[in-house]
C-alpha cells in the first residue's frame, strides 16, 4: 500500500525557503552595518611573540574619522565656522601688530620735531622779554570780542578703532551746541573722513575739510594753519578752537579742547611739553610719558641790533608755532587712533579665541553623539540576529 502524501508538503517547503531567505537578508543587512572603513573599526591580529599592534593604525584611523563618523550637517557647519573664526583671529592679531608698529613711527615723528619746537619757544620767549608790552599789538595776539568761533575737529579716516571717532564727533557736537546756546555763531574745519561724512550728512556749516593720513607731515599742517590764520586775520572768525584726542596710554585717550587763535604770549613762552614712548615688557605693550621742562628764553642783549624789526620777527614766528602745534596734535591724534585700534584688535582676538574654544566643545559633543548613534545602530542590528 502506498503511503499517503501530505497535501501540506509544498506549503512547508515554501515556508522553509522564505525563512532561509529572511535569515540571509538579515545577515547581509547586519554585515553591511559593520563598515569596512578603517576609520570606524580597526582589527588587530596578535603576533607570534604575543605583542599586539592594536594601536599601530591609530594615526590613520584618527585622520579619517572626521569623514566617516561625523556625517551630520550640524557638525560639518560647526567645523567650518571654527576654521573661519581662527582665520579671523589671525587677521586681527596681524592688524594689532601693524598698529603697534605705526604707533612707534608716530612716536619717532614727535621726537624728531621736538628740537625745532624747543628752539622756536626759546627764541619767542627771548623776543617777548625784549619787546615787553609792544608785542600785545600784534594781530595774532590781540584778544577781541567773540561773535563767531571756528571749531577744528580731528577724527580718523578709517574705522575698526573702537569708540575713537564717535567720542570725538560727540565732543564736537556738544561744543557746537554749547556755543550756539550762548548765541555765538560757529562753523567747522574738519580733519578726517569719518568726521567729514558725519557732519556733511547733517548739514553743519563747514569751512574746510582735510584728510587725516596715518603719517602727518608739515605740508599738511601748513595748509591747515594757513586756512586758520587767513580766516582770523580777515575777520571771518574771532577765535579758533582745536578739538583733538590727547594720547594718554594704549588704553586711555581723552578728547580735549584748546584755543589756537588768538595766541597767548605767556602760554607760548611758559608752557612745557611732554613726549610719549612705546615700550614692551613680557610681550605686553605699554607707554611711558615724560614731562619736558620749559625751554629757557634766549637772552638778547639790549645793544643787539636786529636786521629786521623784532615785531616782524615775532609776527613771522607765530605762524611757524601754529604749524608746529597742528602737526603735533595731528601726530598725537594718529597715535590715539592707532592705540584704540590695537585695543580693538586685541579684544577681537580674545573674543575669537573664546568663540573658537566654545565651538570646539560643541563640535566634540556633536561628534560623540554621532559615534554613540552608530554604536546603538550596530548593537540593535546584532540584537536582531539573536
Supply database-style keywords.
15% strand, 386 residues, 8 helices, 57% helix, alpha/beta, elongated
Q: Total number of helical segments?
A: 8
Cα radius of gyration in angstroms: 39 Å
Percent in strands: 15-25%
Helix content: 55-70%
- Unreliable stretches covering 5 or more consecutive residues: 29-59, 61-71
Beta-strand segment tally = 7
N-to-C order of helices and strands: HHHEHEHEHEEHEEH
Structural class: alpha/beta
Largest sheet: 5 strands, mixed
Quaternary organisation of the protein chains: single chain
What's the average pLDDT? 75
Morphology:
elongated
In angstroms, what separates the terminal alpha carbons?
45 Å
Strand order of the largest sheet: 3-2-1-4-5
Describe the structure.
With 386 residues, this protein is an alpha/beta fold. The chain has 8 helices and 7 strands, in the order αααβαβαβαββαββα. It has helices at residues 9-33, 58-68, 73-131, 164-181, 193-201, 218-233, 265-270, 310-385; strands at 148-154, 185-191, 206-210, 239-249, 252-261, 273-281, 284-292. A 5-stranded mixed beta sheet has the order 3-2-1-4-5, sandwiched between helices. Strand 1 (148-154), helix 4 and strand 2 form a beta-alpha-beta unit. Helix 1 (9-33) runs antiparallel to helix 8 (310-385) and helix 6 packs across helix 8 (310-385). The longest helix is centred in the C-terminal third of the chain and has 76 residues, at 310-385. Mean pLDDT is 75; it is low at 29-59 and 61-71.
